[in-house]
Fold this sequence. Notes:
Chains A, B: InterPro entries: DNA-bd_HTH_TetR-type_CS (IPR023772), Homeodomain-like_sf (IPR009057), HTH-type_TetR-like_transc_reg (IPR050109), HTH_TetR (IPR001647), MftR_C (IPR041347). Chains A, B: Keywords: DNA-binding, Transcription, Transcription regulation. Two copies of one chain form a homodimer. Chain A folds into two domains: 7-54, Arc Repressor Mutant, subunit A (Orthogonal Bundle); 56-199, Tetracycline Repressor, domain 2, CATH 1.10.357.10. In chain A, 67% of the residues lie in helices and 0% in strands. Chain A is mainly α. In chain A, helix 1 crosses helix 6, helix 4 (57-78) packs parallel to helix 7 and helix 7 (122-147) packs antiparallel against helix 8. Residues 214-227 of chain A have low confidence and may be disordered. Chains A and B meet through helix 7, helix 8 and helix 9 of A and helix 7, helix 8 and helix 9 of B. Chain A binds a DNA duplex through helix 1 and helix 3.
Amino acid sequence: MSRPGLRERKKQKTRLALIDAALDLFAEQGYDATTVDQIAAAVDVSPRTFFRYFATKEDVALSLDADGQEILLAELAARPAEEPPFTALGRAMNTMITILEQGDTADRSRFLKARELIESTPALFAGGVRMMMQNERLLVAEIARREGMSPDDLLPHFAVSLFTAAIRVGLEACGPGQLNDLSDLTRHVDRVMELAERSLRPGWDRPAPGDGTASGAGPGSGEGTAGDGSVPDGRE
Amino acid sequence: MSRPGLRERKKQKTRLALIDAALDLFAEQGYDATTVDQIAAAVDVSPRTFFRYFATKEDVALSLDADGQEILLAELAARPAEEPPFTALGRAMNTMITILEQGDTADRSRFLKARELIESTPALFAGGVRMMMQNERLLVAEIARREGMSPDDLLPHFAVSLFTAAIRVGLEACGPGQLNDLSDLTRHVDRVMELAERSLRPGWDRPAPGDGTASGAGPGSGEGTAGDGSVPDGRE
DNA sequence: TTGTCAGTTGTCAGTGACTGCCATAAATTA
DNA sequence: TAATTTATGGCAGTCACTGACAACTGACAA
């Protein structure tokens, strides 16, 4: 495989430099007190360029999480179809962390630094949740595809929502300063996932056998009005 | 009871006027395309004053939801202690909607208008989720109190997180234009809550009998460092 | 090597959210 | 009516973010 070319390499370098500078400044003086100009100056780049790399100031801290979620989605798609939705999601999550663990030391510490910052900064925390919700859509679509259900069906929505809820509890459980290693993350997440498995009925994950309509709205649910057990896409 | 005095009444009037004007403008020209100056002008108030009523532009659309969540919390506190957490949360939610239904027509339509706007506007949607997460903390604290558990215990966190996840799915299920009445909201939310009840083991809600450590750190997680089955507060 | 082209960057001017400050006006209380 | 509190308006300023244009720099082919 040929290397990506000088231009591309330079871009990645700048991107990482911006992230590192931002993370350092945020940790030092706080997120709100840090201006984009400072970050740009630290990397010797114009503020305008910063916004060519990251759409918002939030994004520079959130981008690593975004990468992670992309991996999660890809890994979910790679899970065998026999695995029920929730199991597949959990395994994909573990694989994702494993992949993160394979990065070099700088990558790993950068990721952990970002996570800690996100959890301890209200503005970033909100942004992180926002991202997770956006990703939720994609996860729902993938689960629906795997299971051969409509993406409007309630069950995939519920399953994915439950999954992200569990992950969030796991992430919150990594208190301040408790996140020294990616294995800490795995441990916390696994604990919550186990609690979830323990709390749920076996097979909740998939439509009850003989339940043709699954959890509602099969193909021709007569009335097109509301309350037919489906959930529309609804956002542009 | 003596009426709140002219000053207070005037303030409430301005607040509602700002909300109404904002909701109309948002619906007309979109959230992003509407400036705070426009909203203020529509109510004949200086932009500076707008920010004395609402900390951010988002808040003017989110404030009704915020009121709702406050009610939810109060109703949860009023539920009998015998009810297990998830049940109590669900009942409190229903009561909250009932209370909203008791407002006058203007109040109700305002609320529905705001909800529809929030669901259809990415920026507002994100803000709404943010709010819900903040409220989640309070719900966790209340559940922990009811159950006599530490607010750091994993179980209340999981239960509340699951609850809000279900509510969110219910809210998303109210597609665009499908929210004509508060009863639509009840219907969608109830459907998801039923799915949740059906999916969960009876009693998952409360620590297993004889399980001293509640949901904590199963047997054999020796190290007393992180991951002891608790979740710290972690935000200032 | 050189010229062309596409992608990247800096500069600049501008919009809009949001804040602190101070003077003024209105409501409350004495 | 006078004194005090509280809401408001105006203003100047900061900061996130954007569009437009010009200068630069790798990529690539002649």
